[in-house]
Amino acid sequence: MKENVLTETWLNHTFATTLLSAACIFLFIRWFLTRPRNFPPGPFSLPIVGYLPFLSKKPFLDLTKLSKKYGNVFSFRVGSKNVVVLSDFLAVKEAMNSDVFLDRPPDVQFQGQSDNISLASVNGSWWTEQRRFSVHILRNLGYGKTKMEDHIKDEINIILAHLASLDGTVCDVREVLVPSMSNIISAFVFGRRFDYNDPKRKYLDERLNEFVEYIQWFNMKTFFPWMKPFLSILKSGQFRKFEETTDKLLSFIRKEANNHKKSLDENHVRDYIDSFLIEMRDRQKKNNISSFLGKFSVFKPEEFI
């Protein structure tokens, strides 16, 4: 009799546990697969991994096929995050002109070992202020105008001259294309280009390549935020290297800013750094606390004002 009671109790507990587990799994799947209200259409996504298993090594081709089926604005799930894809110019233009789309994912954190807060991971008024300032300054420096075209044409001529000097010798064009593209940006940020053999050019490109390599790890944290504790343990070495690379890049930029400060002429703005330093001084004079001063600034006010 006692054994029958124990068996019945065990069966009741087992049934209750199974029922509760099934209910939890059902609710989890229902929550995962349910799209937010008024969300763009899109393909079916699996629990936990989302649509990742259906993407090939050339995801841009997969997204193009999906746009033909679901339209120029569609969605799917990556990990535990909903992703909206804009696949035509008009949709991208509309989004980029709206303040609603200015924020970045809250789980993205690009932070080095310094006390400064990275603007790459903040939102709100600080980011809006920097974005508007950057667009304004880049336009003044020739972004979207013939001046920018001149920079690109000059760099192309240098590439062609370099390739011609090889006299048909086999080479890896990436060794030329990467620094050439970087030089176009350098012309706006630093006010000059760096020769291919310039130690600064090589140092900057090496740090940027490292940055791109290590930053891929953050995609896991972005789309699988629940994996952060495990990733921090498994990838602690990668994270440390990312911090070191970030700090080396910041150190390189600060050295350039110091050189700019010594020859700064407010009547002759040469590049983005000049514009930023001038803006910092103006804000300091007006005692205007903003993203140009304090922990949000790449440049420390006490060093450059």
TrEMBL record:
Keywords, in A-Z order: Iron, Membrane, Metal-binding, Monooxygenase, Oxidoreductase, Transmembrane, Transmembrane helix
PANTHER family: CYTOCHROME P450 508A4-RELATED, CYTOCHROME P450 FAMILY
Short name of one Pfam family: p450
InterPro entries in the record: Cyt_P450 (IPR001128), Cyt_P450_E_grp-I (IPR002401), Cyt_P450_sf (IPR036396), Cytochrome_P450_fam2 (IPR050182)
Coiled-coil stretches: none
Family of the protein in this entry: Belongs to the cytochrome P450 family.
Domain of life assignment: Eukaryota
Source organism of the structure: Limulus polyphemus (Atlantic horseshoe crab)
Segments passing through the bilayer: 15-33
Protein name: Cytochrome P450 2C28-like
